[in-house]
């Protein structure tokens, strides 16, 4: 099989990728999505400060499984020197790629000039990419938004700066920081970025169905499509299945597999707590009765959780 595209010399097979999502794109969920057909694994964003100062829970963010490769560590900060120091340390864990977050709209991140806050400082973006690409052996990529707000949509300038300073791929979420998650993603802008640079471009924003994957590709010409929120409702989208096409026994088995991995990674009680929020999303179409749902989503006991799941799917 021929690769769909390359991140520098790294072949990527497939045209749909799970988005980095804080609180969701952990090892258990990523590995499930990768098995279902996501072409690569982006981690949740990793704060450079947590790397440099060895946050006690950093190990949960940097653990990955070899089957997930190509594995992309995503990093965020506002300080080029600290991003470089963190990236050098992260490289020692053996990722295939390091990605810099230029898109996070959360006030606590963008307000201090990190994430989408960097879009307001193109000279800093140039410095970050020129320093990282010279110092690291792995490719360095970017995930951007269209700009800070409606009047400063500088995505073409930013994309060119990233490419000129050695960036190997650009993922574009078609909204500004000001939009956060409101309005519609601007797929025309993603198409413009695709035309403006010669590195691969991943399009992102509002892909919810299998048909949307093809629509975004046709509309933008992007090399791959990145899916975030819709993948938490339907990770089977990576196998090109819409949610209503997924057999209940598949949902059941996926929940049990992911639970096992979540308990392995986080231990108890956190492993079950994290898993409960995925269960709420995967089980949404079944319209569970309120009392039952409350029990399922508040239990502290994995055995009780599994028993309740089994009863939904009629397994004794
Ligand atoms: C809960 C949540 C957490 C997110 N965390 C990150 C993150 O850590 N890094 C990042 O680049 N984008 C993050 N995003 C943005 C997504 O990667 C993606 O760009 C956005 O959700 C739009 O894609 P979608 O319409 O497919 O959801 C997050 C989004 C959500 C909803």
Question: What topology emerges from the helices and strands here?
Answer:
Elements lengths: L4 E3 L2 E3 L3 E3 L8 H10 L4 E7 H5 L5 H5 L8 E6 L3 H12 L5 E6 L4 H4 L11 H14 L4 E5 L10 H10 L5 E4 L13 H10 L4 E4 L5 H11 L3 E4 L1 H5 L14 H19 L3 H13 L7 H9 L3 H11 L4
Helix pairs in contact: 1-11, 4-6, 6-7, 7-8, 11-12, 12-13, 13-14
Bound molecules: flavin mononucleotide.
The site of flavin mononucleotide (FMN) has 22 residues, from strand 4 and helix 10.
Give an overview in words.
α4 runs parallel beside α6 and α13 runs antiparallel to α14. This protein has helices spanning 27-36, 48-52, 58-62, 80-91, 107-110, 122-135, 155-164, 187-196, 210-220, 229-233, 248-266, 270-282, 290-298, 302-312, and strands at 5-7, 10-12, 16-18, 41-47, 71-76, 97-102, 140-144, 170-173, 201-204, 224-227. It folds into 2 domains: 5-241, Aldolase class I (TIM Barrel, Alpha-Beta Barrel); 247-312. It is of the alpha/beta class and 316 residues long. The protein binds flavin mononucleotide.
């Amino acid at each position: 099989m021929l690769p769909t595209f390359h991140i520098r010399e790294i072949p990527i097979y497939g045209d749909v990728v799970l988005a980095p999502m804080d609180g969701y794109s952990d090892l258990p969920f990523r590995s499930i999505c990768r098995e279902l057909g996501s072409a690569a694994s982006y981690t949740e964003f990793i704060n450079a400060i947590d790397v440099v100062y060895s946050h006690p829970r950093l190990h949960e963010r940097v653990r990955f499984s070899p089957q997930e490769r190509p594995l992309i560590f995503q990093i965020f900060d506002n300080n080029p020197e600290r991003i470089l120091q963190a990236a050098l340390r992260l490289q020692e864990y053996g990722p295939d790629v390091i990605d810099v977050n230029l898109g996070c709209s959360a006030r606590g991140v963008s307000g201090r000039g990190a994430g989408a806050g960097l879009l307001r400082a193109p000279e800093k973006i140039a410095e970050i990419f020129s320093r990282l690409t010279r110092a690291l052996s792995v490719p360095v990529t970017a995930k951007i938004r269209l700009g800070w707000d409606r009047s400063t949509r500088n995505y073409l300038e930013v994309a060119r700066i990233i490419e000129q300073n050695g960036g190997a791929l650009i993922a574009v979420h078609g909204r500004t920081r000001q939009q956060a998650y409101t309005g519609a993603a601007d797929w025309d802008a993603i198409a413009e970025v695709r035309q403006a640079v010669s590195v691969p471009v991943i399009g992102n924003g509002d892909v919810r169905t299998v048909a949307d994957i093809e629509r975004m590709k046709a509309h933008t010409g992007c090399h791959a499509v990145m899916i975030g929120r819709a993948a938490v409702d339907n990770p089977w989208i990576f196998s090109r299945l819409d949610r209503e096409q997924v057999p209940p026994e598949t949902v059941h088995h996926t929940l049990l597999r992911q639970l096992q991995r979540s308990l392995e990674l986080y231990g108890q009680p956190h492993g079950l707590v994290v898993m409960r929020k995925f269960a709420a999303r995967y089980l949404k179409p079944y319209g569970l009765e309120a009392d039952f749902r409350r029990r399922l989503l508040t239990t502290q006991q994995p055995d009780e959780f599994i028993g309740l799941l089994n009863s939904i799917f009629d397994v004794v």
